[in-house]
Amino acid sequence: ALFEGSMYSFVFMWGPALEALSPGVDLPFGLIFASFMACCMLGSTVFNLLMSRGYDPAAFMRVVYIVACLSLLVRVLCTDALLVLSGFCVFEGCVGIYFPASGMLRGKHLPESMRATIMALFRVPLNAIVLFALFYVTKMSHDLVFLFCSVVHL
Length: 154
Known about the structure:
Layout: H1 2-21, H2 29-52, H3 57-77, H4 81-109, H5 112-136, H6 142-151
Helix pairs in contact: 1-4, 1-5, 1-6, 2-4, 3-4, 3-6
């Protein structure tokens, strides 16, 4: 729930965060979004490659969480729009790895008869995180939002 909460908060915040770093520049949001989707697809491809080489998703997801954390910290630590955009692309790559890995881990560890109930319960903190971010986004700096999104990966 924490990864997805961070991801959904990112969905609402990446545009304003990049605009704040590029005042007066008309950003190509369509191209940026397409780049994010390409990075997500690349992440899914990396997942397939890792699985074909026999890596355990439970083991490599630890690395993915750390990389996701660091990629979002770029926005907090850096004011260069291109570096921040690069960090966001890396985060989207982590998202591309996360979804198939989490699906595989859910299938492996959650009994079929209880999977929907358990996943619904995990949606409660997920929705709370997203609502918190949306309600307080105008009261918090972009740095604070991305610091929060980064820290939940640890």
